[in-house]
Amino acid sequence: MAELFGGVEAGGTKFVCVVAEGPDKIHAQIQFATRQPDETIRRVIDFFRQQENRLGALTALGIGSFGPIELDPNSPNYGHITSTPKPGWENTSIVGLLKDSFKIPIGFDTDVNAAALGEFRWGAAQGLGEFIYVTIGTGIGGGGMVNGALLHGLVHPEMGHLMIPHDLNEDPFPGICPYHQDCLEGLASGPAIEKRWGQPGETLPEMHPAWALEAQYLALGAMNLILTISPQRIIMGGGVMKQSQIFTLLREKLLLLLNNYIKDPKITRDIDNYLVPPALGDQTGVLGAIALAQKAANV
Amino acid sequence: MAELFGGVEAGGTKFVCVVAEGPDKIHAQIQFATRQPDETIRRVIDFFRQQENRLGALTALGIGSFGPIELDPNSPNYGHITSTPKPGWENTSIVGLLKDSFKIPIGFDTDVNAAALGEFRWGAAQGLGEFIYVTIGTGIGGGGMVNGALLHGLVHPEMGHLMIPHDLNEDPFPGICPYHQDCLEGLASGPAIEKRWGQPGETLPEMHPAWALEAQYLALGAMNLILTISPQRIIMGGGVMKQSQIFTLLREKLLLLLNNYIKDPKITRDIDNYLVPPALGDQTGVLGAIALAQKAANV
Fold this sequence. Notes:
Two copies of one chain form a homodimer. By secondary structure, chain A is an alpha/beta fold. Helices cover 36% and strands 20% of the residues of chain A. Chain A has two domains: 5-110, 2-Layer Sandwich (Nucleotidyltransferase, domain 5), CATH 3.30.420.40; 124-277, Nucleotidyltransferase, domain 5. Chain A contains ten helices and twelve strands. In chain A, the strands form three sheets. In chain A, strands 3-2-1-4-7 form a five-stranded mixed beta sheet. Chain A has a five-stranded mixed beta sheet with strand order 10-9-8-11-12, with helices on both faces. In chain A, strands 5-6 form a two-stranded antiparallel sheet. The first copy, chain A, is globular and about 60 Å long. Chains A and B meet through helix 6 of A and helix 6 of B.
């Protein structure tokens, strides 16, 4: 039997854990709501312990986490969730708690960088040295690769909080971001849609004006990412992007906004292959965590 | 005598050419207005020919160019200025014209990536794997490094065209970008300042409200760059940034906008060293071109 890896998609709403050899060989998967750190991490440890008893020892673990998180290996806070507004989770040493129980390499990155790595290994970003992965759900986050390596920098990207034009005449909704009011996340996350229209996005009909407005904001965000990083592809996932009509609207608006200024035919003539959903679908995050585990073990 | 390198800062308004061993050993420098391509490139060639006769053969040339430009070495158009609105310059093979006259390695990149490389080698970005260089003048452009290499991607960054919030009640000026109207360049470039206030920025007094508005737009641009790339430093140069009061206003507004969401002390406690002018001053661009030449010659 080949090597086994454990992956944790650590989300603010739910945790998903998986034991797998790779994307086509998943041996076990579990999902549960995110509670307080001690209880939640305990369930993660119990799951991997049980699977090790059943399947054999894990080679490495990977964690793609909500954040902000500390990624500097030289920091005493490496492996912590740092300044999250999520009650109880501030300064949680997620890597440390798992390290106490499993004496194996642990890969750690943002949830979106993990997802990006998953798409790079097995999905829509194979062979691309520059691409971006954005998720639009409870929050908005983005990660990706530049010059063939994951985007880190001083802290890590927080693309959900991009400031974009907001026409108050067209959309008087003030935005819900506690830090920046009407940043991209404040205007276009799932909770922003629900608060603006008084009902969850998934209950709004396909032709509801909510979707054209949503596409406009996401197109402005995508435009800013293109102008900053010049990615070879943008992958957009998360709950909100399951409204499949959004992709068509979003691609149209993006081309209108760019207005032929960036002339590469990969954008101007092939937008359907430039701005795409994740090829790994709902499994992008947790398979990305498996990819982080493999990377930590140099596989 | 050590090796000699030629550098060309190819701007839409002026060209600067230099022959140097490095930043502290500049042997000759010339500057002239940008005319039609044939005449302009002829002057570049004549300058380097004369200096070779006087000083000896050049080892390599470097060109930091206005754009957009083609940087894909596999493209038949590599080394061209491509879709520029500048009359006469569209599809000019700037590398090819120099290659015909000088059979030596030629480094080629955007003017802002060249400047970034200059600051990396000798200026404010030494030792940084992720940083951004932005120039605010006739236009606004940005380049930099991520994961230790210059930012290229599908085309190259065009950070000047970032879309940012524009409050029409506070600033009814519609913006002047022919592609995007009120993008960052449309609102905050030198010509935008001149058109909005009816006189050039350099003639406006230090306490004029123009500067607070300018700082607001540049802070929004800097914020979006931080949220996307998480750079370790942002260097801002160009003619507009010579109004030294702008840095103070800009740093204040940037911290207000970020609102302590990105908690790294390099930003929150040391903004004066985070958002800085270029250490090489007016020579950043042309010394960056020397750095490109050295890179092309593997020096």
